[in-house]
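Hypothesis: this fold can be encoded by more than one sequence.
Test: take the C-alpha cells below, design a sequence, compare later.
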C-alpha cells in the first residue's frame, strides 16, 4: 500500500471515527423520507345550482347531467397545492365515481394536482358510505400517502361519514372539520370551529384531515394548467383491482337502504302584503302568527 493510500486510509478511517463519535438527528417531515405524498378525495356531485333530482325508480340521484366536482373538494385540492408549494409534495386526486367523473379529475389536474386515481366500476353503483370508504381504503392503503385530505361533507349524500370511516380503515389519526391547515416537520395542525370558540388540533403524519368551506378559495385552472392536465396520468381501478368481493359492492349489498323517496312539496306561494297604509301592522301580525316575534 503506497504512503498516499495510508494517508487516504487514515483520513477515511479518521472521518468514519469522527462520524461514529457524533450522533445527529435527521427530521425529514416526521419519519417520512423524501417527497410528501398527499391524496385528495374528490367526489362528483350534481351541480348545486342545477335542478337536482332523485330517480323515484332507482331511488338514486339522477347523475345524467350537470355533474361537477363538489366545491368543498376543489378547496381541499387548493389546500393540498398550498402544502405542495410550501414544501416538496406530490398531490394525487382520488375519486370513486362513474366514467363521467374522469372530466372532474382532469379539472383538478388542471388546477395543479400531479396525477389521479379513478375507482370506476358499474358494480359500485348505489354504494353507501361504508362501501365507499372500503373502496377508497383498498385503493389508498399500499400507496404510501402521508396525508389524506377530504371535504367535511358532500352536497348530495351529506353523511359526513366517509372521512372518519376511511381514517379508521387505514388506521390513521384524523383531524376533521378544519378551517385552517398547516403541515410542518411531519405534523399536521389545524383549527376547528366549535360552537363556543376554536380548537387547535394536530397529528403526526400519516394522517387524514377533512376541511370546511372556510379553508381556502380554490384557484382557477389557467390555460397552461389545462393543457398540462391532458398529459397527466389517471390510474383507473375496477372492482377486481381492489380485492373487494362483488357481494360486498354496490346498492344491492349496501348497509343502508333508501326505503322511499318523496319529492319535495312544491313551494307554496308566499304571503303578499299590499301596503294600503297598514302594511306595518299586517307584517307584525304575520310575524306574530308565525311566532317569529
Ligand atoms: C340523498 C342521498 C342520501 C344518502 N344517504 C346515505 C345514508 O344515509 N347512509 C349512507 O351510508 N349512504 C348514503 N348515501 C350514499 C352516499 O352518499 C355515498 O355512499 C357516498 O359515496 C358517500 O357518502 P357522502 O356523499 O355522504 O360522503 P361524505 O362523508 O358526506 O363526504 C365527505 C367527503 O368524503 C369524500 N368522498 C365521499 N364520497 C366520495 C367518493 N365517491 N369519491 C371520493 N371521495 C369521496 C369527499 O372528500 C367528500 O367531501 C346517500 C346518497 C344520497 C344521494
Amino acid at each position: 500500500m503506497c504512503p498516499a493510500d495510508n494517508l487516504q486510509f487514515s483520513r477515511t478511517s479518521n472521518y468514519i471515527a469522527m462520524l461514529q463519535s457524533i450522533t445527529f438527528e435527521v427530521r425529514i417531515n416526521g419519519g417520512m423520507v423524501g417527497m410528501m405524498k398527499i391524496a385528495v378525495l374528490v367526489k362528483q356531485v350534481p351541480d348545486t345550482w342545477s335542478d337536482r333530482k332523485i330517480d323515484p325508480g332507482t331511488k338514486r340521484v339522477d347523475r345524467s347531467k350537470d355533474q361537477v366536482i363538489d366545491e368543498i373538494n376543489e378547496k381541499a385540492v387548493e389546500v393540498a397545492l398550498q402544502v405542495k408549494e410550501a414544501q416538496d409534495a406530490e398531490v394525487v386526486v382520488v375519486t370513486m365515481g362513474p366514467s363521467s367523473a374522469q372530466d372532474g379529475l382532469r379539472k383538478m389536474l388542471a388546477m395543479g394536482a400531479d396525477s389521479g386515481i379513478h375507482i370506476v366500476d358499474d358494480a359500485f353503483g348505489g354504494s353507501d358510505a361504508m362501501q365507499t370508504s372500503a373502496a377508497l381504503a383498498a385503493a389508498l392503503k399500499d400507496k404510501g400517502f402521508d396525508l389524506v385530505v377530504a371535504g367535511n361533507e358532500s352536497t348530495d349524500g351529506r353523511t359526513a361519514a366517509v372521512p372518519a370511516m376511511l381514517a379508521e380503515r387505514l388506521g390513521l389519526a384524523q383531524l376533521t372539520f378544519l378551517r385552517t391547515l398547516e403541515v410542518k416537520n411531519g405534523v399536521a395542525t389545524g383549527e376547528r370551529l366549535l360552537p363556543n370558540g376554536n380548537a387547535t388540533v394536530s397529528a403526526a403524519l400519516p394522517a387524514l384531515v377533512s376541511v370546511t368551506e372556510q379553508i381556502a378559495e380554490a384557484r382557477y385552472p389557467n390555460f397552461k394548467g389545462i393543457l398540462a392536465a391532458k398529459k397527466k396520468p389517471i390510474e383507473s381501478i375496477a372492482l377486481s383491482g381492489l380485492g373487494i368481493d362483488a357481494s360486498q359492492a354496490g346498492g344491492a349489498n349496501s348497509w343502508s337502504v333508501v326505503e322511499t323517496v318523496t319529492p319535495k312539496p312544491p313551494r307554496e306561494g308566499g304571503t303578499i302584503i299590499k301596503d294600503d297604509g297598514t302594511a306595518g301592522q299586517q307584517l307584525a301580525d304575520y310575524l306574530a302568527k308565525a311566532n317569529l316575534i
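The pocket of flavin-adenine dinucleotide is lined by residues 41-43, 61, 70, 72-73, 94-97, 127-130, 132, 150-151, 153-154, 156-163, 256 (CB under 6 Å). Residues 3-253 form a domain with the Rossmann fold fold (CATH 3.40.50.620).
Hypothesis status: open.
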